[in-house]
Every structure is written in C-alpha cells, then in structure tokens.
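Hey,
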Amino acid sequence: MTGPIGIIHSPYTTKDKCPIQPIYSSGVTGRVEVFEQYEAGLKDIETFSHIYLFYQFDMTGEIQLIRSTFLDDKPHGIFATRHPCRPNGIGMSIVKLIRRDKNILEIEGVDVLDKTPLLDIKPYIPRFDVITGATEGWVADKEWRPKPEGRE
C-alpha cells in the first residue's frame, strides 16, 4: 500500500454532525481531490454514475471487537457491522458521481468527515455488484433510526 491517493472534502467537520451511512446524506455534495500523480488513473471514471470510495477512518475512537451500533443497542462483532472503529479503519461508501474536472470529482451522498484520506476508487457496476438473494443478517429486522447521540 502506498498510502492515500487523495482527500475527500465534505461539509462535515465534526463526528456528531456526520451521517453514518450514505442513505442519510442524500443530496449532500462533496469533492474528491485525487492527488495529481494519480490523475491519469481517473480516465473514463466519468462514464459511471456511481463510484465506491475506500478511505481511512482517521478520526475514530476506541477499537472494540464487540460493540453496539446505531441500528441496535445489542452488541455485535465488529466484522458483522459497518462501525468506523475497526482494527484497520477502512471505510467504504457508494456515492453518485456528478462530474469530473481533471483530478477533482464532484460527488453526491457523501457521508465522511472533511479531509478524510482517500485510499482507492472503484466504479459501481450493477451487473457485478448487485447480488440477487443477498440477505441482511441481523440488520434485516431493525428499524432505521438516526445515530444515537454521542455514539460513533
């Protein structure tokens, strides 16, 4: 791994205001600044409507292997959740790609803190990424609710 390839810019500067999933940030725009030495790798990215952003959770709290989440007060194993306080601290979001201008991508649905280190970008390809019959595990019977106050 070479380290970050760029920076994600968003309107969120504090954890308490940052949404915990892209579904809670519909319509919120941000920018992905890809470092100039990686700009050539963006060739044809604008042909996709959505992209995966892989990033480093660099502002998370204590890592716990078992913890509760925003959807459930009952604790679950960290690898059965999308909680940000992870051993390797790698996050992933699917965002809408609005436009590309050289090394800058304008995106919609951003759900990360401003200045989050970007590790990778991949196109969202429904033919490959939608899995018919996939199950939602313990999340299936949980009602959507906002992030509880004071919880990451």
